[in-house]
Design brief:
The complex is a heterotrimer of chains A (339), B (296) and C (394). With 296 residues, chain B is an alpha/beta fold. Chain B is built from 8 helices and 17 strands. Helix content of chain B is 27%, strand content 29%. In chain B, β11 and β12 form a beta hairpin. The longest helix of chain C has 35 residues. Classes of the chains: A alpha/beta (339), B alpha/beta (296), C alpha+beta (394).
Chain lengths: 339, 296, 394
C-alpha cells in the first residue's frame, strides 16, 4: 500500500500546498499502514526531492520535465504534461514493484487543489480510468476504500463520498493541514519524461500584472475587499493596511466587475478557495458565493457598515462602521506601534 | 414522428409536443448543419443552490423547488451565443437528465441556442466519470467543432467532467475560461490560472470549460421563450447512442454516502461604538494573529 | 414538503410557457428593477431606461398578437409578469399595465388595421409611451358624466376637456382618450388616439404625490385639439370601450398585488428570523408566528384567485364581476399584509431600507384606482342582489 503525493514542481520553493499534501499523505499512510511516496514532476523536480523526504516521503519518484521557461506554471506547458507523467509513473512504478516480488500495491494519489491541478485532475482520472474525488477536506483510506469529506452546495453541506478501487485519486483543499516536518531516509527513482502531444495548443501570452503574481491560496493573511471599498482613496487605504499587516489582497465579485483590481484576486465559489490564518473582510456583505471561498479561514474579522450583513454571522470579530473612517485610524494606530 | 407525448407531471401538452422532433430509434437526424460550424454546449440541471437550504431526513431541500440551469453552464451558453452572433456558429445544447429536465433545457433554447438534445435514462447516481463517458459517445457521434461547458456544477462543485471528456476525446482543452475569442480559425481562450492569466490558442475541435465570471448570461426574453417552442429538441435514450448498452449500465466509481449540514461558524463578538472603540477592538484582533506581526 | 412561498403549489399547475415567462420576468425584475426601487420612490424617479428594458424583455403588450409586435403570450403570463413587476414597486407595474392593458389592448381590440400597424409595434418596443384618459377632475367613479367632448369638423374632430390622475401622461407620446360625441341627438362615449405633440394638448405633471412616486402621473388637457377622423376607434361606443381596457388592467392588478404581498411577507419572515430581542429571534414568539400564518393564508387565497381568474380569461369565460371580486379582494388583502409587515418591522418598518412602508403607501393608491375597493363591492352587490346601489336613494 502506498500513498503518493503528486507534486508539480516549477517554482524555486515548493508551494505550501504541496507540503500540506505530503503531510496529509503521511497521516493517511500511518493510519493505513502504507508507505509515502512523492511523485515530483516538473522542471524543478530534482531540486525539491530532498524537501519531500524532509516531509515524510520515503520513496521519491522524480521526473524532470523540460518546459518553456517563460511559461513554467501554466497548463499548456506543465499541466498538460502532468497527465502523461502520472500515467507513465503509474505504469513504471507498478512494474518495478511487481518485479520486486510484491503484488500490485493499492495506491492512493493525492494532489493539491490549485487551478493547475483542477485543470488536469479529471483527465488523469479518465486516463487511468480510476475513481477521483476532488476538493476534499478530510479522508480515510484502508487500501481499498476511500471515504472523503468534501464541501458541496456552495460549502453549505458536507458530503461524505465513498470510492473503491486499487487506485484512487483525491485532491486536497489548501490551508487545512499544518505542514509537519517528518524527515525520513528516502530512496530516489528517476524517470524519463514521456513525449506529450500538446494537440496544437499554444500559449500566446501570459498576463501577470505587477503585484499580482502572489498565489492567494498560499497567503497566511488575506484582506478581502468588497463593494464597501468604492474608489481609489479606499484602494490606497487597503494597500497601506496590507503592507502593515503583511496581508495579500483578495476581492469579491463586486470588484471583479469594477475593474479596480485584477481578476486573479477573486475569492469565492467561482474564484479561489482560501483558508488563511486571518481573513479580514472589508466592506464584504457575505454572499453565499463569496463565503464558499473563505468560510474555512481560521479567523475571520469583518468590517461593514451594515450591522445585519451576513458576513457577521461567521466573523469571529465583527466591527460595525464606516471603512473610510476606520481604515485611516487603524493605519495610524498600526504605524505608531510599529514606529 | 409527431405524436402526443407525456411530459411534465404527467400532463399531455399537445400544443407544443406537436412541434417536438421526437425520435428514439437508433439515432436521429439533426437539422441541416452541413454548412454551419457547431458549438456544442454541455449543460446540467441543478437544484437552485442559491435559494434557502434545509435538511430533512438526511436529504437537502431548497426553498425554490424548481431546478435551474447550472450557472456555469449558463455562462458557457452565453459565450457560445456571443461567438455564434459574431462568427455564425450553430449552437446546440446537450443535457443528461430525466424527461422533465426538458423545461430547463428549453430555457437554453429560449436564451438563443438553435437546437437541443436531452439524453435520458442515465444510469442511477451517475458521477462525473459516467457523465463524461456518455458525453464522449455523444460528441463522437455528433462531431461538433468545439465543446463549451461550465467548469463545474453549482451543486456538487466537483469540476472533473470537462477534463475527463477531453481526455476521452483526445481533444485539446482549456479550463476556467474568463474570456474566449475566435480568430484565425482557432479559439483563443483566456484562462484564470493560480497567479496569472494565460491566453491559450486551441485549434478546432477543442473543449473549453468556463468560469461563471466570464459574462452575465442573458435572461430569456418573452419572444425568445415563445420562439423556443419552434426549435428542435431531441429526446434520446442513452442506450440508443453508439455503445449505448454499456453506457446505460455504467456504475459510478464514486458514491455519496451522506449529506450533513456544514458545522456552522459561531458568530463572534460584534463591536459597535465610537471610532476609538472600533480601532481598539481591531488592534486587539489583529494582534492575536502572530502572522500579522501586529502583536510582536 | 410544505412550500412556504406557494403552499398550494399553484406554480406547478402553470403551463410551461407561462412558468418560463414568470421566471424570466422575476430574474429581470430582481436584477434590474429592485436595485432602483428605493431611490426611485424616495426621489420620484422613473428611470427613462425602464420602458426600453421592459420592451427588450417583451414585457410590454405580452399578450398582444405577435404580428403587431406583441408577445402572443397567454393572459396568465401577463398576470404573472404583473406579479413580478409589482413585487418590486406598484409604480413600475402601473407603467406596464397602462402601456399594455389601457393603451395596447384598446388599439388591438377596437382599432383599425392602420391604427394597429401604426401604433402597436412602437408601443411594444417602447419607441412610444402611452397613457389612458378616462377619469376627469370631477368625475371619478362615475365616468358616464364626463364633460370632455369632441365635435365634428372638416376631416375629423375638435376635442376639448381635461382628464386627471393619468399614469404616464407627462412622458406619453400617445393618449387613448374617451370623450362624448353627439350621435343622433344622443351623447355617446367614443375613443380617440391622440398624440401629445399635437397642438392644444398639454400634460402637466401632478406634484407632491405621496404614493406611487416612482411612476409618472399627470393630467391631460385638450384645448381645441384637432383629431383626424383616422384617429377615432371606428365601432366601439359607450362605456364598454373603456371598461374592456379597465377589466384587463384590473386583472393585472389582481395579480400584481400578489407580488407586493409576497414581498412584504418575505421581508417580515426574514426580519423576525434575524432580529433578536430579549435574547431570542422575534420569530420565536407567538404573535409574529400567527401574523405570518395569517399573511401566508391570505397570500394563498390571492394566488389561487389570480391563477383561476387567469385560466378563465384564457378560456374566454370571464365575467367582469369575477375581476371585480379578485381586484377588490387581492388589493385589500395586500394592503392589510403590508400594514402588518410595517408593524412587524417596528421602527425599521418606516425606513426606506426595508421597503415595506413603500408598499403600504403604494397600495393605498392601488386600492383606490381602477375602481375603488367599495365600488367593486357595489359591483358585486349588484350581481348578488340584482339591485344597483351606485346611485344614492336618499
Amino acid at each position: 500500500m502506498r500513498v503518493c503525493a503528486v507534486i508539480p514542481c516549477f517554482q524555486e520553493e515548493l508551494r505550501s500546498s504541496a507540503l500540506e499534501v505530503l503531510t496529509k499523505a503521511t497521516i493517511v499512510a500511518s493510519s493505513s499502514g502504507g508507505r509515502v511516496e512523492a511523485w515530483l514532476v516538473g522542471p524543478t523536480a530534482e531540486k525539491h526531492s530532498s524537501k519531500a523526504a524532509q516531509y515524510g516521503a520515503a520513496t521519491l519518484r522524480v521526473m524532470e520535465l523540460e518546459v518553456d521557461s517563460e511559461a513554467k506554471g501554466v497548463n499548456v506547458s506543465l499541466g498538460r504534461r502532468i497527465v502523461d507523467a502520472v500515467d507513465e509513473l503509474m505504469t513504471q512504478s507498478t512494474a518495478e514493484l511487481a518485479t520486486e516480488g510484491a503484488p500490485q500495491p493499492p495506491s492512493l494519489l493525492l494532489f493539491d487543489n490549485t487551478e493547475l491541478t483542477k485543470d488536469v485532475l479529471g483527465a488523469c482520472g479518465a486516463r487511468l480510468d480510476v475513481p477521483v474525488i476532488a476538493d476534499v477536506v478530510d479522508l480515510s483510506w484502508d487500501g481499498h476504500q476511500c471515504i472523503a469529506q468534501r464541501p458541496t452546495y456552495a460549502s453549505k453541506v458536507m458530503s461524505k463520498v465513498h470510492a473503491e478501487g486499487s487506485v484512487i485519486l483525491c485532491s486536497i483543499r489548501a490551508g487545512l493541514f499544518e505542514p509537519d516536518e517528518k524527515p525520513v531516509k528516502a530512496t530516489t527513482h528517476r524517470y524519463k519524461s514521456p513525449q506529450t502531444d500538446l494537440l496544437g495548443q499554444v500559449l500566446k501570452e501570459l498576463v501577470a500584472p505587477e503585484g499580482d503574481t502572489v498565489d492567494l491560496t498560499e497567503a497566511p493573511i488575506i484582506i478581502g475587499v468588497g463593494r464597501g471599498i468604492a474608489d481609489e482613496t479606499g484602494k490606497d487605504l487597503v494597500a497601506k493596511l496590507a503592507t502593515l499587516i503583511r496581508g495579500e489582497i483578495a476581492i469579491s465579485r463586486a470588484h471583479f466587475e469594477s475593474g479596480m483590481y485584477s481578476h486573479t484576486l477573486l475569492v469565492g465559489q467561482s474564484g479561489k478557495v482560501v483558508a488563511p490564518r486571518l481573513y479580514l473582510a472589508l466592506g464584504i456583505s457575505g454572499s453565499i458565493q463569496h463565503v464558499a471561498g473563505m468560510s474555512e479561514s481560521h479567523t475571520i474579522i469583518a468590517i461593514n457598515k451594515d450591522p445585519e450583513a451576513p458576513i457577521f454571522d461567521l466573523a469571529d470579530l465583527g466591527i460595525v462602521g464606516d471603512l473610510y473612517q476606520i481604515l485611516p485610524a487603524l493605519i495610524h494606530a498600526l504605524e505608531s506601534t510599529q514606529a | 414522428m409527431q405524436h402526443a407525448r407525456v411530459l411534465n407531471s404527467g400532463k399531455i401538452q399537445n400544443e407544443w409536443t406537436s412541434i417536438w422532433h421526437i425520435q428514439t430509434e437508433a439515432f436521429f437526424l439533426y437539422s441541416d448543419m452541413s454548412q454551419d460550424r457547431t458549438i456544442l454546449v454541455c449543460a446540467k440541471e441543478t437544484p437552485d443552490t442559491y435559494s434557502d437550504l434545509s435538511f430533512s431526513g438526511g436529504s437537502v431541500q431548497f426553498s425554490n423547488p424548481r431546478p435551474v440551469l447550472n450557472a456555469y453552464d449558463a455562462s458557457a451558453l452565453e459565450e457560445a451565443l456571443v461567438l455564434s452572433e459574431a462568427h455564425g456558429f450553430r449552437v446546440h445544447v446537450v443535457m443528461i437528465g430525466p424527461e422533465k429536465a426538458s423545461e430547463t433545457l428549453r430555457k437554453a433554447l429560449a436564451m438563443g441556442a438553435d437546437e437541443a438534445t436531452l439524453l435520458t435514462d442515465a444510469p442511477k447516481d451517475a458521477d462525473s466519470a459516467v457523465i463524461a463517458k456518455i458525453l464522449a459517445a455523444f460528441v463522437e457521434q455528433f462531431g461538433p467543432d468545439a465543446v463549451i461547458m461550465g467548469r463545474q456544477s453549482q451543486d456538487t462543485d466537483v469540476g472533473l467532467a470537462g477534463g475527463m471528456l477531453a481526455d476521452h476525446l483526445q481533444w485539446p482543452w482549456t479550463t476556467n475560461a474568463i474570456g474566449i475569442r475566435f480568430e484565425q480559425e482557432a479559439f483563443w481562450v483566456k484562462r484564470q490560472g493560480d497567479s496569472a492569466q494565460e491566453w491559450i490558442d486551441s485549434p478546432m475541435p477543442c473543449l473549453i470549460t468556463c468560469s461563471n465570471n466570464l459574462n452575465d448570461p442573458r435572461i430569456p426574453t418573452l419572444k425568445g421563450i415563445m420562439a423556443s417552442k419552434k426549435k428542435p429538441m431531441h429526446i434520446v435514450a442513452i442506450d440508443s447512442l453508439p455503445g449505448g448498452d454499456a453506457l446505460s449500465t455504467l456504475a459510478p466509481s464514486t458514491t455519496i454516502e451522506s449529506l450533513t449540514p456544514m458545522p456552522e461558524r459561531a458568530a463572534g463578538e460584534l463591536v459597535e461604538g465610537d471610532l476609538e472603540t472600533l480601532v481598539e477592538a481591531l488592534m486587539k484582533g489583529l494582534g492575536s494573529i502572530p502572522e500579522t506581526g501586529v502583536g510582536s | 414538503m410544505f412550500n412556504i412561498h406557494d403552499p398550494y403549489l399553484f406554480e406547478d399547475e402553470l403551463a410551461e410557457d407561462d412558468r418560463m415567462i414568470m421566471e424570466a420576468a422575476r430574474e429581470y425584475c430582481q436584477a434590474n428593477l429592485e436595485p432602483r426601487a428605493l431611490r426611485g420612490n424616495q426621489d420620484e424617479i422613473f428611470d427613462p431606461e425602464i420602458p426600453k428594458e421592459m420592451a427588450d424583455m417583451g414585457l410590454l403588450g405580452a399578450s398582444i398578437a405577435e404580428e403587431y409586435g406583441g408577445g402572443g403570450a397567454s393572459q396568465t403570463a401577463y398576470g404573472l409578469i404583473a406579479r413580478e413587476v409589482e413585487r418590486v414597486d406598484s409604480g413600475y407595474r402601473s407603467f406596464m399595465s397602462v402601456q399594455s392593458s389601457l393603451v395596447m389592448v384598446p388599439i388591438e381590440k377596437f382599432g383599425t388595421e392602420e391604427q394597429k400597424k401604426q401604433y402597436l409595434p412602437k408601443l411594444a418596443s417602447a419607441e412610444m409611451i402611452g397613457c389612458f384618459g378616462l377619469t376627469e377632475p370631477d368625475h371619478g367613479s362615475d365616468p358616464s358624466s364626463m364633460v370632455t367632448r369632441a365635435v365634428p369638423t372638416d376631416g375629423g374632430w375638435v376635442l376639448n376637456g381635461a382628464k386627471t390622475w393619468i399614469t404616464n401622461s407627462p412622458i406619453a407620446d400617445v393618449a387613448i382618450v374617451w370623450a362624448k360625441v353627439k350621435e343622433e341627438e344622443e351623447d355617446v362615449i367614443r375613443g380617440f388616439i391622440v398624440e401629445t405633440s399635437w397642438k392644444g394638448v398639454s400634460t402637466p405633471h401632478i406634484k407632491d404625490k405621496m404614493s406611487l412616486r416612482a411612476s409618472e402621473t399627470g393630467e391631460l388637457v385638450f384645448q381645441d385639439v384637432f383629431v383626424p377622423e383616422t384617429h377615432m376607434f371606428p365601432d366601439i361606443r359607450g362605456l364598454k370601450g373603456p371598461f374592456t381596457c379597465l377589466n384587463s388592467a384590473r386583472y393585472g392588478i389582481a395579480w400584481g398585488t400578489v407580488g407586493a404581498a409576497e414581498f412584504c411577507y418575505e421581508r417580515s419572515r426574514t426580519y423576525v428570523g434575524e432580529r433578536k430581542q430579549f435574547g431570542h429571534p422575534l420569530a420565536a414568539n407567538q404573535l409574529p408566528q400567527t401574523k405570518l400564518a395569517n399573511m401566508l393564508t391570505d397570500i394563498t387565497t390571492m394566488q389561487l384567485l389570480a391563477w383561476r381568474l387567469g385560466q378563465l380569461r384564457d378560456a374566454g369565460k370571464v365575467d367582469p364581476a369575477m375581476i371585480s371580486l379578485a381586484k377588490r379582494h387581492n388589493v385589500g388583502k395586500a394592503l392589510d399584509i403590508a400594514r402588518v409587515a410595517r408593524d412587524m418591522h417596528g421602527g425599521n418598518g418606516v425606513t426606506g431600507d426595508y421597503r415595506v412602508i413603500h408598499h403600504v403607501i403604494n397600495l393605498e393608491s392601488v386600492n383606490t384606482y381602477e375602481g375603488t375597493y367599495d365600488i367593486h363591492g357595489l359591483i358585486l352587490g349588484r350581481e348578488i342582489t340584482g339591485i344597483q346601489a351606485f346611485v344614492p336613494k336618499g
